[in-house]
Amino acid sequence: MIRSKFENIRIAGIACAVPTAKDVLADKYSKIFGAEAVQKFTQMTGVVSRHYTSRYQTASDLAYEAGKHLLQKKNYDTEKIGALIFVTQTPDYFVPATSCVLHKRLGLSKDCLTFDINLGCSGYVYGLQSISSLMSLSNIESALLLVGDTSTKTYAPEDKSACMLFGEGGSATLLEKNTSNKTIDTTFRTDGNGFKAIIIPAGAYRNVDASHERTSWADGNLRSDFDLYMNGTDVFNFTISEVPKLINEFMTDTKTTPEEYDSIIMHQANLYILKQVAKRCKIPMEKVPVSMDRYGNTSVTSIPLTLSDKYGDVSDKNVNVLMTGFGIGLSWGVVTAEINTNDIYPIILTDEYYKDGAVKHD
After folding, report:
1. What is the pLDDT of residue 332?
2. What is the number of domains present in the chain?
3. Is the model's pLDDT at 179 over the cut of 90?
């Protein structure tokens, strides 16, 4: 087991943003798939509605709005931020890294390290690990972890396995060094044998001869190699076996129990998976907050979004949380931290997008 323990680093702020536009599944998809099929999907996944971006709004726009909101609420000096990591699978460009765009938009110092991480559903916990490692091995006193995905731009419009599942959002998390006894504890795993379980096969530089034509795949859904494909059976089997195993091993190694955590914040994959993981870890469901009923599976944003949904209106309470992200790669991890609820802000809505982001060739 890979274990990391970061002492005297704390999560000092969390803010989340979602697009204003909202779909109610029963209203949008009953005419396409039938009311009974949509009802069954909602019962299984827990998704009732979700928010989605406009044509020009990107993941970085949502992360930027969350970051701007967080820094304004905390009246934070941007000169103090020594690192910015952006975790996404839906970047603004192939090159440059979108973190550089966010660095400019937030007005950060030149003495600031920035880079992107290409991860989805496990990306938030991997991001916490990465940024805590940077801080612990440098003189960086504070850093920003920005995350976001616009998954509704990636799938075929009538792909029943994906089109009703995903929502969109972005988040900003501020981390600081401090002299308290707060710690961030982590563990991670990867199984690259499952890299095809969640994949967009074309669009980069591997499958260069792929067709954009949508055809019927073995699961009966119309998609092209440029659309997101998810093998639901493989993902489900991986999740309910490997994720509980890691959580249980982590709690054994740290000599903790579910009772010692105020909340177990899981990636919002689907409600049935959450229940199965909780059952296998002997975690009461009342300790597992659910946000995907209103926001869908928001990929990398789902953990901080669930924290904001649960604690954004709670005043001055220290909460001990276990966070677990799992999915694409296949990759999964666990992070524990104590956070004061005054540092967790309510979710904001935004339609803003970066109008100067389009490069024109005069």
Report:
1. 98
2. 1
3. no
- Residues 14/171, Cβ–Cβ less than 8 Å: yes
pTM, two decimal places? 0.96
Burial group, residue 79, by CB count within 10 angstroms (0-12, 13-18, 19+):
exposed
The answer to whether residue 359 sits within a structural domain is: no
Do 171 and 146 form a contact (C-beta atoms < 8 A)?
Answer: yes
Instruction: Check pLDDT > 80 for residue 362.
Output: no
**Mean pLDDT rounded to a whole number for the chain:** 96
Greatest pairwise CA separation for the chain in angstroms:
63
- Contact (CB, 8 A) for 151 and 166: yes
Q: What integer is the mean pLDDT of 104-120?
A: 97
337: β partners: 321
* E strand intervals along 91-221: 113-117, 142-150, 168-177, 183-190, 198-199, 215-216
- Domain annotation covers residue 116: yes
CATH number of the domain bearing residue 240? 3.40.47.10
pLDDT in tens, 249-259: 999 999 999 99
* Strand spans (E) along 63-197: 81-87, 113-117, 142-150, 168-177, 183-190
Domain membership of residue 293 as a residue range: 1-351
